[in-house]
Amino acid sequence: MSGPRIGVVGLGRFGDIHSRIWNEMPQAELVAVCSRDADRARAVAEAHGAPKWYTDYEDMARDPDIDAIDICNELARHTEVGLAALSEGKHVLCEILHALTLEETSQLMASAQEHHAHYMVGFIERFDVRRALAKQKIDAGELGSLVSMYVRRNVWRGFLDVPRDQPYPLILQPGILSIDQLLWLGGSRVREVYARTRSLSNPAKADAWWIMLTFENGLVGVIEQSWFMPDIRLLWCDVHFEAVGTQATYQFHEPNDSNWLWTPEVTRHSDFYLLSELHGRATGALANQLAYFAEHIAAGQTPAIGTLAEAYEALRVGLAITESAACGRAIQL
Fold first, then answer.
1. Dihedrals φ, ψ of 319, to 5°?
2. How far apart are CA 239 and CA 94, in angstroms?
3. What is the pLDDT of residues 117-130, one digit of tens each?
4. Domain residues of the chain, as ranges?
5. How many Å apart are CA 247 and CA 197, to the nearest integer?
6. The pairing of beta strand 237-245 with beta strand 146-156
7. Is the alpha carbon torsion for 234, 235, 236, 238 positive or negative?
8. Could you give the CA distance from residue 227 to residue 63 in angstroms, rounded to a whole number?
9. 94-97 long-range contacts, Cβ below 8 Å, gap at least 24?
């Protein structure tokens, strides 16, 4: 096996999916999984062919048979797991949100540099074919000068009950993906943010967000994000993206009309974005992301997508958005 040897920390839904993809991937080898629940760790290891399992991520980080750690556990512990892995010279792939503060992000940057380790943040939307095509066309000038961009992500309300996400503003977890998407495609720094929210399910937590970002190059970006899609739905989210340029407009919508399943009870649309099946193997944006990480680690190269510098900027904008929502005015960056 010429690819990196992987250990996965955190075995909830995403950790289980990551473990499955690593096991199927020819570019890497799944060596170990880790969960504080020993029964869960053992079960996932057996299901996905990992020869080792751990209940302590520090023990996993010290394992000489592991080259890289894939962090999928709860957000509050992402930084401590990342620092433990980096201190042992392990490369790191971390699910969003990578850290809660800019100070933690700076610590991760310094540790990665000190220990000559590569760190990649899982900005999965950059590995979606439609978004990558938008980036290609924008960079090639096919749209002309960008005028505005709009991102809608209205999500199934059941996600409001996910314990791991409840303590954090929804615009940061998982909304940091929408922020990163605009920063990545916009090609400019944000100079001003303005946000409005509503709190309908829980008075203490905003569950509907509207945000305007003004970039240094004059581009305007708008984010709409809410959590009110009903239980009976076509897909887990209603997504729309639009980039308006002086010469062309690029847009896509999900769910679209490419695939439907009609039953007596409900109409469904398959998920071709996050994870789908192709001849019995996982495919989609998540598999693309993990393969990209593995290939760069195998080549001894720092992944150019999802750098800590990019994550720092996305978090900086995200924190300004939460500040704007709290004080009711625009925030200058």
1. -65, -35
2. 24
3. 999 999 999 999 99
4. 5-117, 126-278+313-332
5. 33
6. antiparallel
7. negative
8. 41
9. 94/70, 94/119, 94/120, 94/121, 94/122, 95/14, 95/71, 95/122, 96/121, 96/122, 96/123, 96/124, 96/173, 96/174, 96/176, 96/177, 97/168, 97/172, 97/173, 97/174, 97/176, 97/315
Q: Which CATH superfamily is domain 5-117 in?
A: NAD(P)-binding Rossmann-like Domain (3.40.50.720)
- Region 306-333: mean pLDDT is 97
Give whole-number Cα distances, 304 to 178, 295, 318, in Å: 19, 12, 21
Q: pTM here?
A: 0.92
In the block, residue with structure tokens 């999928």:
72
Strand partners, 258: none
Contact 303, 120 (CB under 8 A): yes
DSSP 216-228: TTS-EEEEEEEEE
User: Where on the phi/psi map is residue 23: left (φ > 0), alpha (ψ -120 to 50), or beta?
Assistant: alpha
* CB contact at 8 A, 13 and 165: no
What share of residues in the chain are helix, strand, coil (percent, to 5)?
Answer: 35, 30, 35
CATH class of 126-278+313-332: alpha beta
Is the predicted pLDDT of residue 152 greater than 90, yes or no?
Answer: yes
Please state, in angstroms and rounded to a whole number, the distance separating the CA atoms of residues 170 and 38: 31
Cα first-last separation, the chain = 47
DSSP classification of residue 196:
E
pLDDT, tens digit, 9 for 90 and up, residues 238-253: 889 999 999 999 999 8
Angle 289-292-270 (CA atoms, 0-180°, nearest 5)?
30
Q: pLDDT above 70 covers what percent of the chain? A: 90
